[in-house]
Specification:
This protein has a single domain, classed as Rossmann fold, CATH 3.40.50.1000. Helices cover 41% and strands 12% of the residues. It has a six-stranded parallel β-sheet, sandwiched between helices. The relative contact order is 0.20. It binds magnesium ion. Magnesium ion (MG) binds next to loops.
Length: 185
Amino acid sequence: MSLFSPDYTFCAYFHATPSFFRQEGIEVLLLDIDNTLAPYEQPLPDLRLTEWLEALLAEGIQVAFLSNNHGDRVELFNGTLGLPCRYDAHKPLARRAKALFTSLGGTKRTTAFMGDQIFTDVLCAHLSGARAILVPPIWDKRDRGTRFKRWLEKGILRRYYKKNPTAPDVREGNPITEEIRGSLK
Ligand SMILES: [Mg+2]
């Protein structure tokens, strides 16, 4: 298994259903926030996200946030949800991810981590021993650093889709991006 290659891909977080997690034996799900669940500019969870999280919890799947962003952002976002969370997580370092899923009763075998960045989220998942779920970023930055990172990701994704030709293609983008574009018009 490559450290950088995801185990699963979806084009949006809500495409991953409770039955998918059940089928795959995933009992603990760690979630990145920014660009995975909401764009940076969205301070609070929307109804779709709240309902998706509730559906997972109702299935007995433990859910927690693991973010490199700061406490004020993460605590505001999590305010009404009240889920377990770690901010300033220093991803891709695995220490906080591991501590978080262990505190929820998860093991390497029963935990997955969903995020939008290969070199942060996928790598963190694998360094902690968990499985990695990759989604496309909702609203990508266009600065040089991000463009370079996306260029590096391309080769990894090319190899991934060669091996997994029927997996949902994150290179097609996130449908939430289109919704935001539509609402800006
Ligand atoms: Mg992110």
